[in-house]
Amino acid sequence: MKKNVIAVTLALSLLAVQSASATIKQKSVRMVELPRLVEAPFFQGAGGEWSETLISKRGIYLVGSSEPDGAATQGEVVALDPRTGATLWDLPIPGAGDAIATAAILDPSGNIWVAGSSARTGEIQLPTPTPTPSGILNPSGVVITPKPLTRAGLTEISLWQISPAGQLIASYQYDAKKVVLPQSIIYLKNSFQIVGRDFTIAMDRLGNFSKFIAAQPVPIKKSTTLNFKDGLYIWKSYISKSAIPGVIGWKPTTPGQVILKVGGRTGNIYSAFRITNTLLKIDFLAGVGPVLTTSTPNGYVISLLK
User: Which residue among 9, 81, 98, 138 has the highest number of C-beta atoms inside a 10 angstrom radius?
Assistant: First the structure.
């Protein structure tokens, strides 16, 4: 009887060792550049610049501002096909004078709500802005705070509602009587909260604005590490300072940002990508995957990982 117990114990121990070995063992993967779904300037003119990327199963939406030759600046939304990167539609959002789009969200119905600022009347001749990426991380993991756009005359808070098909549904304005720069917009059931660098205001679904409150927003601490659960896998993005076990072709002399596809149960690495361009934003949506927006001298790159 004692011999049988010992035999069973040894068999279970051997099985545990074999299972552990199977879990740890993995084939090495090579670190590669991010794939490019599409690369383009997207926004017109020398002052054209990106502000936000939104994703849904219908499309990838790029929100920013354009500076057409000889015309006022304007907001713009570009919709891309997540499968091919082809442009589905491109909607300019002109104002009475100069206007810029600086923040955006999707509501539960798939409508795109774009916040920005605009001039009250007439075209205003303003200097071309210098593109300033928002909230990016440098290789040391420090959040780079963009310099605010300097535009005299943009005293109206603007909120535009756009359908998933690219139609402008409604436009709302609030005269703040001072230069304003919306930085974020939050959907709260039947209202929207717009936060700027020195103010906050809300608007209900009927277009009624609340009292304008002058206030400095509480800085949001941004993490250098992001994790996204994707079925049996986890996408991990972080600043890597040394070689990564199971990944070949990665021995950084300086810290660099990477994104890995890791098995949720095994911990094995199945894909490894290095981010060499300026990273503007990482988004994730189940059924679509991670979407990365990066900036290059040629414009902006959208990468979709599978």
Answer: 98
Q: Beta strand pairing status for 247-248 and 29-33? A: parallel
**Which residue's structure tokens are 């896998």?**
233
Q: Are strands 87-93 and 60-66 parallel, antiparallel or unpaired?
A: unpaired
pLDDT digits (tens, 9 = 90+) for 34-63: 999 999 999 988 778 999 999 999 999 999
Q: Say if residue 5 is exposed, middle or buried (CB neighbours under 10 Å; 0-12, 13-18, 19+).
A: exposed
Write the pLDDT tens digit of every residue in 195-241: 998 999 999 988 999 999 998 777 667 778 999 999 999 999 999 99
Contact 81, 304 (CB under 8 A): no
pTM: 0.82
Alpha helices (runs of H) in the chain, residue ranges in sequence order: 2-24
Return the pLDDT at 238: 96
Alpha carbon distance 129, 121 (integer Å)? 20
Cross-strand partners of 305: none
Tokens encoding 195: 């936060």
Maximum CA pair distance of the chain?
Answer: 97
- The DSSP secondary-structure symbol of 240 reads E
Rounded alpha-carbon distances, angstroms, from residue 228 to 22, 175, 219, 264: 25, 40, 23, 11
- Residue whose C-alpha is closest to residue 103's, from 142, 130, 135, 125: 135
Tokens of 176: 């703040």
CA distance 223 to 12: 43
Both tokens assigned to 256: 């660099």
Q: How far apart are CA 147 and CA 167, in angstroms?
A: 32
